[in-house]
Amino acid sequence: MTAEPLERAPDRHKRLPGPVPFPDPRHPLLRTARDSDLPELRRLDEEVFQEVAYPAFLLRQLFDMYAEHFLVLDDGEGRLCGYVLAATTALSHDSWILGLCVTEDSRRHGLGRELMVEILARLRRSGIEQVRLTVEPANRAAILLYRSLGFRPEQPDGGLRRDYFGPGQDRRVMRLGLSRSL
Ligand SMILES: CC(C)(COP(=O)(O)OP(=O)(O)OC[C@H]1O[C@@H](n2cnc3c(N)ncnc32)[C@H](O)[C@@H]1OP(=O)(O)O)[C@@H](O)C(=O)NCCC(=O)NCCS
Fold it and tell me: Model confidence over 123-132: pLDDT tens digits?
């Protein structure tokens, strides 16, 4: 595993559930990740991404590098139910979304969108001009979310990159330009 853009996705997204009532009436708090979140972040990443979860050492180092653009959804009782992580390059004003997830029981309530809208706003304020991400071609939920936020496939080949993460691990690269005026 390397510190490349590691947008992962488990197979479970192939079953796409419809909207369901949110089990907890309280809305989780969206805030910047803290050092003390790391064990819970690790648990959350493993719960959602399973065998492709970040190893603990990499999650730690991603946090050290990109804490400013590491956002979590906190249920107020010590549990995290989502996160988004963006890596930035200061000189080229580029950014990659390296992780986005919401726990299965909290999906379809606008939380994934909330995480993305907030991270994009922060990236824009940081002077980032271009955001890219990779997504598994069959991950319809994520692709629809990204498209609705303005991301488009990065050409050529409709963004499709064969064997991007190794043999048989194709990914689609999507891109969004951030306007400074928004
Ligand atoms: C992708 C993910 C973060 C979306 O989170 P979410 O909180 O359920 O998303 P939201 O409720 O904010 O939905 C935002 C939009 O995404 C799309 N979407 C999300 N889930 C969908 C689904 N099951 N079916 C179809 N569209 C879906 C819709 O366009 C939706 O907008 P709408 O509600 O106006 O129709 C979540 O499904 C997840 O964590 N999946 C597993 C991890 C993963 O695949 N991460 C992305 C890796 S690239």
Answer: 999 999 999 9
